[in-house]
């Protein structure tokens, strides 16, 4: 080849490379929309339901299972009894939890006692303080003594104390135990050490350290994981459990307030809902009740969003509908009074007596969960009328039922518009494909009428439904659509929130835990990245004049944070190749000097576990920016948040 030909060939190669490079650069323009799109300051939140041992055995820090001996038809479930132990109800100290145990002497000094197994064991930490309490009376008027011991899974006694029970009147006894070992599967033993009989009731063991040091409080690591999300709202207490499998077993908030010892137990429908995950020892103690929920919201800085039954039990289980809605509506009105009413109002007084005279400043209430058909809108209308008449500023949240689309969904949405509900709760537990193809779901939603509350959603990566990186990536891609449409989507909460690794019924879930440890899923980090970088105003983000909803595997949205003076770009690259993107924001007035990328990236099937909690965590790095443009190479199958100051 001559030198001239070689030169021409090299020129040709260089030109082709440049052409190829240009072809592969995606120019994404970021501009202000014609009409401002404000982002709700409480847009991203959490949805809490007592499923997967989320409350009893989870967030609620109580370590004793069946502490009141009230598990339905099984008053000693969770307790191993030995010697002569009777279940009794006569002359009980707490009329709504009437069962207690009588420990009778068998003639042997150590022949009678009870052992609690905890929630799949009792998690104890070496050298930390645990507060034990119980109610007891000595019915024989002899010198009474109980020995209390914490026993490790290896049978070591890791803490013990003796306590004299001398009174023949019911009295509360308390002591602090400090274990010598850390053990996730310990047990609590209470052994009769005297010759008479002793009655015992409401045996409770709490870590001294709870979230914010609250009495009857929350497990520190789990509540802290919520705090780290900086949630804007906190929806509670369900989900299906507010509906109940019958109206009698629906969640009734009034049973969950007042002295903890006298809150009547309820079944937990997740106990038997899924036969392949049958959990016969799952009940609702209501120890984590509405006062504690409101307190937790305040501690987290989140707006409370309580949901009440609408006079219809779970339609998957029964056709039971309330004949008279009056008590249901009254419950909703009383709940608002409990949260906000003055201390001299009936329910405001209850709140004040529980320790919170100030209002909880409740702003919204959900009516019903996953109903469908004609009864729901008829009921909802009566709730809306009653609530509006008494509390005109209260936002009322209706529902579009359990499906993400279809006839029932369309019918309910049309009814929600007719009734002028403030928000409509939508639920979608769907596969990855659905999440990716629904990133534009809200682009054409009506801008008039009710706003959307994406109240329960999660990407189900079949068949295993792991908290895989892929599921999180699909959610991240989908959520660009929530952000872009923040004028329609006012609130969003992933579901479910918590799951005990040894006692779950439903997956995937955002946070997994055992008795001592917890792990944040990749899905958690996606929620966190949106929540901590939500901004104040959504921008228009276009690739070839179209919203970026999957072209070449890209999904993008952007916001301005006026408080922090930041431009924040979120982009998911779901393709198997890296993508070079030029974000052009020259039309914005935003002065950009420095930048940071937060990257979430892993192999698609990977998930964080208790043993390997950091396989997928956001990683930060600084990046180069120019005033008008950001040029980046996005890794294959990755989610990035660019924060430009
Ligand atoms: O999040 C688990 C369940 O899913 C909720 O209880 C219910 O609302 C939905 O069906």
List the helices and strands and how they pair.
Blueprint: H1 3-23, E1 25-31, E2 37-38, E3 44-47, E4 79-82, E5 84-88, E6 100-104, E7 113-116, E8 122-124, E9 130-138, E10 145-151, E11 157-164, E12 171-177, E13 183-192, E14 198-207, H2 220-227, E15 233-236, H3 240-243, E16 266-267, E17 283-284, H4 290-300, E18 303-308, H5 326-340, H6 346-353, E19 364-367, H7 375-390, E20 395-399, H8 407-419, E21 423-430, H9 432-437, E22 451-459, H10 469-484, E23 489-494, E24 498-500, E25 511-513, E26 518-520, H11 522-532, E27 537-538, E28 540-543, E29 546-547, E30 554-561, E31 566-573, E32 579-584, E33 595-601, E34 619-623, E35 629-634, E36 638-644
Parallel strand pairs: 1-32, 3-15, 3-23, 15-18, 18-19, 19-20, 20-21, 21-22, 22-23, 24-25
Antiparallel strand pairs: 1-28, 2-27, 4-7, 5-6, 6-14, 7-13, 8-13, 9-12, 9-14, 10-11, 10-13, 16-17, 25-26, 27-30, 28-29, 30-31, 31-36, 32-35, 33-34, 33-36
Helix pairs in contact: 5-6, 7-8, 10-11
CATH superfamily heading of the largest domain: Glycosidases
Major sheet size, sense and barrel closure = 8 strands, parallel, barrel
Taking pLDDT < 50 over at least 5 consecutive residues as the criterion, the unreliable ranges are 12-22
Strand content: 25-35%
List bound small molecules. alpha-L-arabinofuranose
By helix and strand content, what is the structural category?
Answer: alpha/beta
Question: What's the overall average pLDDT, rounded?
Answer: 95
Strand elements, count: 36
CATH class of the largest domain: Alpha Beta
Verbal overview:
The chain is an alpha/beta fold. It has three domains: 122 residues, Golgi alpha-mannosidase II (Immunoglobulin-like, Sandwich), CATH 2.60.40.1180; 339 residues, TIM Barrel (Alpha-Beta Barrel), CATH 3.20.20; 129 residues, Galactose-binding domain-like (Jelly Rolls), CATH 2.60.120. The protein has eleven helices and 36 strands. The strands form seven sheets. It has an eight-stranded parallel beta barrel with strand order 3-15-18-19-20-21-22-23, surrounded by six helices. Strands 2-27-30-31-36-33-34 form a seven-stranded antiparallel beta sheet, with helices on one face. Strand 20, helix 8 and strand 21 form a beta-alpha-beta unit. The longest helix is centred in the first third of the chain and has 21 residues. About 2% of the residues have low confidence. The structure holds alpha-L-arabinofuranose (AHR).
